[in-house]
Write a structure and sequence with these properties.
Elements: H1 2-26, H2 32-39, H3 42-45, H4 81-85, E1 88-89, E2 100-105, E3 108-125, E4 128-135, E5 143-147, E6 151-158, E7 167-168, E8 193-199, E9 204-209, H5 215-220, E10 224-230, H6 233-238, H7 252-265, E11 275-285, E12 295-298, E13 325-327, E14 332-339, E15 346-351, E16 356-360, E17 369-372, E18 374-378, E19 382-387, E20 395-400, H8 404-408, E21 412-417
Parallel strand pairs: 1-5, 3-6, 5-10, 11-14, 13-21
Antiparallel strand pairs: 2-3, 3-4, 6-8, 7-9, 9-10, 11-12, 14-19, 15-18, 15-20, 16-17, 16-19, 20-21
């Protein structure tokens, strides 16, 4: 039975992906509605329904946007959505394309990172490129991971043809460091640089992005990333009410419980090793620049966490670019999730066959929603999901946006529980 399930999942993924790419290649000016019309119902498409004809039409590529190739494996060697999931830049460890350091200064831990804005084509579906503006050449930008109370020092340089900033969704007390055109250095012109400094507060999952105008274009083009501020267990012990939406008595037992949760969220503590953590940024791409997205994804590449060829025993044969997210059912799964979609009011995350706890913005150590299987996020909203598959049978478990068109246009994925 598992081999049949894997085969069906692979067929659905390949069918949806092929039809999406064919529509984008044959008629770049098609709206997302016409793309969906060609795709049809996922289940039927995967089992013999013929492809409906696409209307022909030219593409006036006056801006030079969008390069198109053949359907196949992703070819963008500079960004792997599977590696991105767990690429936490802490000052000590992280990605090769992020220069970083950690040191003490005036009695405070400083975590220093170098980010540069560049113009670069990125792969969003097999053979489909998008002209992005990106931090350090990748979309999403590098994940910065720090500890509550640290000084975050970001040395930013603008290597793009456009003016850019970095705006942090943190509790920032200095308006000159807000990263908006009206304050501090303003929008940095091409070739300019500036060093931003922010105190890492509050604990939680946060967001950074360019705040230059027109804002929707700078975000849509890819200038965004995640800042994870790990809670400081000592601060939690001293001020537990800052981390919970709870007005009852704080007993010693309850205080100890909160400290233990904080330790499991902090990458510098051994308790964190018992949790499998990953970052997902839900995004979309308007490939014909008509104000509607034609491609949706988690971490940029459509269907990257779908199913390729496999022997059904966890051995993937489709290369490194398309496979489910393999997880150990004996580990708690913690997903740092954020929505950066442009041109749509909301995005969502839905798990099949499982419910999870949700911490809105990650600023509390108790769930803000408990035992749910679907959450919605507006743009820039983020949160932490904790999912437990310990009592599930091994196999494939789908997760996706529960806007059906988003799922059929790329935002459909699988966990492989082993």
């Amino acid at each position: 039975m598992p081999a049949v399930d894997y085969g069906r999942a692979e067929e659905i993924t390949r069918t949806l992906e092929r039809r999406l790419v064919e529509r984008l290649q044959s008629n770049v000016t098609a709206t997302r509605r016409s793309v969906l019309g060609g795709i049809g119902v996922a289940g039927s498409a995967a089992f013999g329904v013929s492809r409906s004809g696409a209307s022909s039409g030219g593409h006036d590529d006056h801006d030079g946007h969008g390069g198109h190739g053949v359907v196949g494996e992703f070819e963008d060697a500079d960004f792997d959505p599977h590696e991105y999931l767990t690429a936490f830049n802490t000052g000590r460890d992280g990605q090769e394309n992020v220069r970083q350091d950690v040191y003490e200064e005036d009695g405070r831990t400083v975590r220093e990172f170098e980010l540069a804005a560049v113009d670069v084509p990125i792969t969003i579906a097999p053979g489909i490129e998008f002209d992005a503006w990106a931090f350090n050449g990748q979309v999403p930008g590098p994940t910065l991971r720090v500890v509550e109370g640290d000084l975050i020092r970001v040395k930013f340089s603008n290597g793009s043809r456009h003016a850019h900033t970095i705006h942090p969704h943190l509790r920032n007390l200095d308006p000159t460091m807000d990263g908006v055109p009206q304050n501090g250095p303003g929008a940095l012109a091409p070739g300019e640089s500036f060093t931003y400094e922010w105190i890492a507060q509050p604990a939680g999952m946060h967001f950074y992005h360019c705040h230059a105008m027109p804002l929707k274009e700078h975000i849509h083009r890819g200038l965004y990333g995640t800042i994870i501020v790990d809670p400081d267990p000592d601060r939690v012990r001293e001020n537990p009410r800052d981390y919970v939406n709870y007005h009852g008595p704080i007993t010693d037992e309850y205080r100890d419980e909160l400290v233990e949760v904080a330790r499991s969220r902090n990458h510098e503590y051994a308790e964190n090793d018992d949790v499998n953590e990953m970052v997902m940024m839900m995004n979309g791409f308007d490939t014909n620049f008509d104000g509607d997205n034609e491609v949706y994804a988690a971490n940029t590449q459509a269907f990257a966490y779908g199913v390729g060829s496999t022997d059904g025993n966890g051995n993937w044969e489709a290369g490194e670019t398309k496979r489910p997210i393999q997880i150990d059912r004996n580990q708690l799964q913690r997903v740092y999730l954020s929505n950066v979609i442009e041109f749509d009011p909301i995005n969502s995350f839905h798990t099949h066959s499982q419910f999870f706890d949700y911490y809105d913005h990650g600023t509390t150590l108790q769930p803000t929603l408990k035992n749910v299987d679907t959450i919605m996020q507006c743009q820039a909203q983020r949160g932490i999901l904790e999912i437990d598959y310990s009592d599930h049978e091994p196999g494939l478990y789908m997760f996706h946006a529960h806007q059906s068109e988003f799922a059929e246009l790329g935002w459909m994925s699988f966990f492989e529980v082993v």
